[in-house]
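User: Could you check the structure of this?
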Amino acid sequence: MLSKKTILVLGIGNSLMGDDGAGVRAAMTLDGWAGARDDILLRDGGTLGLSLLPEIESCDALIVLDAAMMGERPGAVKTFVGEEMDAQLAGKKHSVHELALSDLMAAAALTGGRPERRALIGVQPEIVDWGLEPSPAVAAAIGEMHQAVRALVERWES
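Assistant: Sure, the predicted structure tokens are below.
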């Protein structure tokens, strides 16, 4: 059971690079749901940076939404919880965000501020190139990412 009150939902990615912005887009679909709760902090982390470290260190649980190279079909959504998230971030890096997120989580671990409850909800991108819209496969998966966040929060709360 989640004993503390703050759950940080962090969407990361570059919305100018097609599918790369999937995490930010998915986070924004949670605005109504998160806004009705006092225990959810919803953030657009953009292309990430160590400036997010204080927020991660001060939250009680963390859910990161991002496009992630997982070797799956475009639009596939996977949830990596706890050590699974750590292992996903420790593998071969495919994007600047993965490196930055890996560094950010390592810094939080070094300071003792890495949330025990943490997860990465990733979607396999199809197109990471200049463009304001995601590919059809990733656009169709945004709702699945939204549902994965809600299901994970419910699981942590029970």
